[in-house]
Amino acid sequence: MTTIHTIERKPRAASAGPPPLLIMLHGYGSNERDLFDLSEYLDPRLHIISARGVLNLGFGFAWYHLGGVPGNLVPDPATRARARDILSKLVADLPGRLGTDPQRTYVLGFSQGAIMSLALAAQIPGQLAGIMPISGYLDPDSLDGPLPAAVADLPILQIHGTEDEVIGVAAARRTRDFLTPVAKRYSYQEYPIGHTISMEGLLLIQGWLAERLAE
After folding, report:
1. CB 126 within 8 A of CB 150
2. In 3-state terms, what secondary structure has residue 135?
3. Under 8 Å CB-to-CB from 186, ≥6 apart: which residues?
4. Which pLDDT score is estimated for 2?
5. Residues whose CB falls within 8 Å of the CB of residue 51, separated by 6 or more in sequence, listed in order
6. How many CA atoms lie within 13 A of 157 on its CB side?
7. Is residue 17, in this structure, part of any structural domain at all?
């Protein structure tokens, strides 16, 4: 079992079988409550878990260490790889622990959490039913090798702001260009906003999740 601090919203409506699971991953310097307010707007059938980053920065939490400056942030490969492995174990553990459907585990990540969601997709796509990376990117340097074949059928909704001052939109567009030829169920959307989640983006997430849960 993986030990990591989480908070949860249990399902508020019944599913035909075990409930689907949504895991939320916050950004650098934040905490597990940052994205949790979004749970009020998401499908009531979801069992929602919001996880706290594994590194205590003193002013918040993170999944891995960063250097550089906003707009040119440099990840620490060792702590990023460790976080990916910890989160992979969390994805594997939670359905058995919570009684959720192991075939319907989704990940929503913002900023550094979005980067981690894409890293998970590149490592364990077969254990995920879909990911929603917001204001993040897939770093080719984080890959152990070629993308697994299962990425081709993994639903991915990537959202980014064209005015993002922390992670420039160019990084997201490189991810789009990298994934589009290999991921058949990949969608990409930009909005004229900064490093945040817009109401339009939230509505898109709602609709995308509804489509996935109806499959």
Report:
1. yes
2. coil
3. 156, 158, 176, 179, 180
4. 53
5. 4, 5, 6, 23, 24, 25, 26, 32, 87, 90
6. 20
7. yes
Radius of gyration over every alpha carbon of the chain, rounded to an integer in angstroms? 16
User: Which CATH number characterizes residue 41's domain?
Assistant: 3.40.50.1820
Mean pLDDT of 125-139: 97
Is residue 1 one of the residues assigned to a domain? no
Q: Say what the pTM is.
A: 0.96
Q: Is 199 exposed, middle or buried (0-12, 13-18, 19+ CB in 10 A)?
A: exposed
Give the model confidence (pLDDT) of 97-109 as tens digits: 999 999 999 999 9
Domain holding 134, by residue range, is: 6-214
Distance (Å, whole) CA 156 – CA 183: 8
Nearest Cα residue to 60 out of 81, 34, 23:
34
Confidence label for 120 from pLDDT (cuts 50, 70 and 90): very high
